[in-house]
Structure formats: structure tokens, C-alpha cells
Amino acid sequence: MKMPAEEAAYQERAREAGRIFAALQEKSTCGAYDDSFLSLLVEYQALFPQSENFDIFYAQYALAHDSVTVALEAAERAYEKKKCHYEVWKLLIECYKRLGDKRRLLTIEGVASRIYRFPVDVPIEKAELTESLALLSLAMGLPNLAPYVLGRARFGADGIEAPPGVFLGEFLPSFQEPADGWRYWSGVLVDRGRLHAKAMLLEALKETTDFPLAEDDAFVFDIMRAREIRSPLAIGGADAADLDGAQADDVQEGLHDVIVPLAGTEARQEVVFRSASIAEGRATLGKWVTSFFRLSERTEISSASPVILGKPIRLGHSPHRKKLVLHILIDALCWPEMKRRDFEPMPNLMRFFSKGVIFNNHYSVAEYTFPSLATIETGVYAHSSQVFNPTCMAELSTRYITIAEQMAHLGYYCVSTMGDATGIYPQVTRGYDRLMIVHGDASLAYRGVEQTVQTMRAFSECDPFILLHLMDAHPGSIADFQLPLATQVQLPLAERLAGAAEGVASVNLPHVPIYAEGVLEHMRSIDRSLGELFAYIEANYSEDEYIVQVYSDHGVSVFSDDVDYIGENQTGAAWMLRGAGVPQTGIVDELTSALDIYPATAHLAGFDAPAHLDGNLPKALGGEEREFVISNSLFPGQTYKLAIRSKMHEFRLESREPLDEDGMTDLRQPKLQQLFLRGKDRHSVEDEGLRQKFLAMARAHTAAIDTRGEVWREKRALRPSWFSGDRNEGKT
């Protein structure tokens, strides 16, 4: 059969680019950076202008001619496109060495050491020792563990050692410091009870190597944007109008009082307040515990020891904002199973959103949380944001503005009342002033809802944007996680004992009754707690004062006979909205993607959606209906898997080789191409014209993933070490 013109053109361009790539790599190996090298490079760029390979070769050429600044610009362009790329790191390291940029050199060498065992060789000044070791700990760690690190770098008897550790009672390191000076500080949450007990216990535990490994869910970390204050500080009064960068006339109603979060750095630390009405007042702060104080006039705050000052919160409402914007992420809520059960497990959820929009044909872009959360918060695919590799530390580029950053710009107080740490180190959740973090999949609805209601009550005099991330429905191996009580008691012993394998990632859990029943019981538990939250909202806000969205980041495998990372059960997700600007249409069958949450939020909250978004405003919300949705598995060490779904059809593609650490693989001749008719009687169909149409979509989507066979020889030679061991590390 004759190859269609579009596919034939791709294959011809790939062959020609491969020939030029090989010639450029050969000349680079020989150090022949001459005019013919540049001529070849121009030819290559004409074929694939967006490829990072052009920037890599150009940086090599510039370095060979001692144009270090030009080389760095090219290398940094390549880094924006591929943040886990060996050749890019080598170039950045050489540029930073020549320019004497020790901080950036340390970060890139640290990351390269984690992935490729690249030697770290950066001279560290004594005055910068603490900061440098913290930065190295971050670079050599996993991006989804905050405030834990795989290895907390420190000097030992035999030089630098790095046992597992935690950042607690200190600022979290980051590759790029925030421009406004408000850095994330890590404390411990005490929402009630004894003020000093947790810090006393944690101070003893934080230096032990077993503490981070345990990921004890008894401790909720309180991460907030803060500064350290070492001398008396006057705040409030006339200063209140511009504490958060908002315009003074933005607040049209309510108070101009300021809420000041303070945390102690010493046990039972005394802090002194002085103002026109209070000659001298004193309060006791808990060590590493945040307490809040309301200031109605200019007030001086002082202490004998350093104090952690959280970013002040200005009270008052604005007609340009809603009094509440609430996003609820129900991790792993499998919407296909909800539909099969006629929504029985979650009646409160369905009742509340029946007065809004419930998208009944919604899909995640990825199969697990790390890339999915980034997709939701940025509105772009993981290969664009470069937040996809759970073993490679990288930060989201500042060119991508997160939802929370957009809401903060509008003047909302942005807070995550409960969640995991997936987005903190990679900057996916930047924009939040405060994040309450719990590990061990223990962000449970009954705790999160209570914390959310407390926050809504406490900050009812301003306009909060709240993210509540619930983990109840996320399955885990029963060798590691406790089952719901009803599941333990009601299942027969044979079913109770099935599926107990240790170390199995949630995406690989089998379809056995114990996991299915456990997830369903957790869904019911979530719904009971959400019923309380929805009742509070309906009792305290009018319909035009709030916007509530509920969505899931992916589904689960436990309702499927076979593990399928991009199947209906694993990528079929939830999305529903209610409140101001949301039509009351109930269930709609329009195709939607997790990418669409960002433009929908922009539309409802009133900020401009960036032009680079991959998302689409759904027709149900005033936009246009999308033709198809894409889900893909972009996990290094495994084959690349792609599903493109239209209303009627589903196209599957899978690579022959595994993905490299940089998220790329050769897609010239995929191992698998299949076309299916969707529905209950899903079956394969033979339609060559339609298959080629979907293949063209796949080619467009994977342009930044496809190596087209262009292999960097030195990088490929290291491949055995990349893919040794369990490549499900980080995938939950």
C-alpha cells in the first residue's frame, strides 16, 4: 500500500535529518567546528527548527570558538526543551565553570550525579557551606518528596555523606530564588492541641535516617512563603495596601486589617508587639509552628531570637474576585467505574454538581500524579513543561504561570489546605502562600475537609483560593497500606489475602476484590466528608459568590482485567464545576482533557489564558468542543504509549524502545498502531484512511518526543545504568 504523502514527507525529513545529525556528531567528535559544520547546522535547523539538537550543536560550536556567553544562551535554550538531557548538562557544566557560576554549576552537577553518576566537582566556600549543601541535597534528590530528600548532604568523617534527610525548621532550597524574596519555609502544622510537643519530638527525629524513610503520616508539614526577621519590624496600617503587590483601590469593601503569620525558631519563643494602642504585648510562639495575628494598625514586632514571618494576608473583598474559589483534586477517582455503578458511591458529589456541569467524557493526560498535577496546574503537556521524570530534579520554567500564580496576581489568598508534596520542589505549586503537606498517601478527606472549613471560616473576610488534594481513593499495596475497616471485615478470608505483593506501584495493582472494594469504600468515605463541606458552602455563600471545581488526576487499574497505563480505567477521570458563571446543565458528554481545567479557571476567575496553553475552553462553558483528547505514558525506562480518543474512535501507538531519561524515543516505526471503535463493545477496526489521520495527529503531538533515530553515542553508551533496577521508582 502506498504511503500517504504526509507520512512519506515525515519519513524523508527524518532520513535527511538523521544523515545531517550523524555528520554533525562526527565533526563534533573530531573537533571540526568549521564553516561546513555551520552549513550543516543550518540545513538541520530547516528540517526540524524546534529540535534541541540544533541548540546543542550550536553551543558546542560557540564553546569551541570561546564564545562562552553565546554557548550558554544556546545551552539554556536546549535546557528549556529538555531538562533531563546528558549532552545539555555537559554544556551547561562547561559554561558555568568558565563563567565561575558556582551556584548553577552545583545544581546541574548534582542532578547529573543523581542520574548519570556524574562527578560533583565544585569548590564550596565556607561562608556558603550550609546553602550549598542544601542545594546539592535538592539536586541529587527526587522532585516529589518535599520536604524530604533522598540524601541530606553534610560533612562526615570521610568527606561529604548524604543519608536520607528532611528540611524542617528551615527554608527549602530551590534552583532559582523567588524574585520577591518570599521563600518556602518548612514547619510543622499544629492546628489544635499542644503548641510545643511536635517540635520537641521532630527535633529528635529529624536527624535520624529512618524518619524520612518512614514517611509517617502523623506529621503534617506546614510549608509557607516566608522571610526570616532578625530585627524589629513595623508592619500594618499604611503598609497594608501593598503587602501583596495588589493595587490599593482593589479592595472595595471590608477591612484593611492584615493577618501576620509568625513561627518561632526557638522553643517557647517570646515575641513582643508594640503599637499606638498596645504599649507592649507579648505572645509565645511554638518552635517551627505557625500562629496568626491580626493587625489593625502599624505594629512593631520583635523577639530576642529570629522569627519566621509568613507573607502577610490583607483582609477585604473585591468585586473583581469571588469570595471563594475552591479546587478539590480527588486523586485516582476512576470516573468509568463511577458510571458503571450509576454514581452510587458518591451521592453528595452528584447532588452538589447537578446544579453545575459534570463532564462525563473526561480524560487525564498521564497515568499517575507527578506529570498529571503539572498538566493541570500549567495547562500544557508534560513534554512541554518538562515535569515528567520522577527521578530527575528540575524546576518548572518561569515562562509557565501556574493557576495559583494567576490567582495570586488577582489578589486571592492562595492556600493548599491538604495535599501531598508532588508539586513543591519542581515549582508546579508555586503561587500558593501556604501548603499543608502530609506523606504516605495520608491526605484524607475527613482531615482535609476540616482543615478547609477552618480556613474558609478564618479567612472569610478576604477572598481565598483553596486547593484540597485528597488521597483516600488512591490504592496502595495492602502489604504497605491499611485497608478501610469495612473492607477488612466484610471480605471472605481468601479475598482478604489476595493481592498482597509488596513494592507494587498503584498503576500495576491487580484486579482483585480487595483492591476494588477498598477503593470503593474510600470513595464513599470521601463523599461523606465532601457532603459536610458542600453543606457549609451552600449555607454560607450565595451561588454567585463561589466557584468550586472537583477533578481527578487519573483513574486506577484495579477495575481492569489487565494493566493498561493509558486505558479507560487508568485515564478516565472526573471533572465537574459549580458556581458563578457555570451553567446548570448537569451531565454533559463533551470530550474534555485535564488540560482544559486551566482555561476553564481563567474564564471563570477572569484572568487571561496564556497563548501557549494546550488546553481548550469546553463548549459547555462557552468555548468550542474539542475533536479529540490525548493520554500518554511518558515514563523513562518504559516504552512510550499513546492514546488519542475521539467521540467514536481510539487510536493506540507504542514505541519499540523505552524512553530515555530525557523523555525521548524513536517513533519512526512504532511497535504498535491500532484503531478501535469505542464503547461497551470496544473492538478493533480496519480503516486505513482514518488510521493515517490519527497517525498524523500522533506525529504532531510527539514531535518533541521523537528522536527519529538521532542518537547521541555517549549518552546511549550509558544506557545500561539508566535502566537498571525498578523503573517504577517514583511512580505511584
Key words describing this protein structure:
arylsulfatase activity; alpha+beta; 16-stranded mixed β-sheet; 29 strands; 732 residues; Alkaline Phosphatase, subunit A; 5-stranded antiparallel β-sheet; Sulfatase_N
Characterise the protein shown here.
The chain is α+β, with helices and mostly antiparallel strands and 732 residues long. Among the domains are: 310 residues, 3-Layer(aba) Sandwich (Alkaline Phosphatase, subunit A); 85 residues, no CATH class. 33% of the residues lie in helices and 20% in strands. It contains 23 helices and 29 strands. The chain has a 16-stranded mixed sheet that branches. Helix 5 runs antiparallel to helix 6. The radius of gyration is 26 Å and the shape is globular. The protein starts with a helix and ends in a 10-residue tail after the last helix. Keywords: Hydrolase. This is Sulfatase. InterPro entries: Alkaline_phosphatase_core_sf, Sulfatase, Sulfatase_N. Belongs to the sulfatase family.
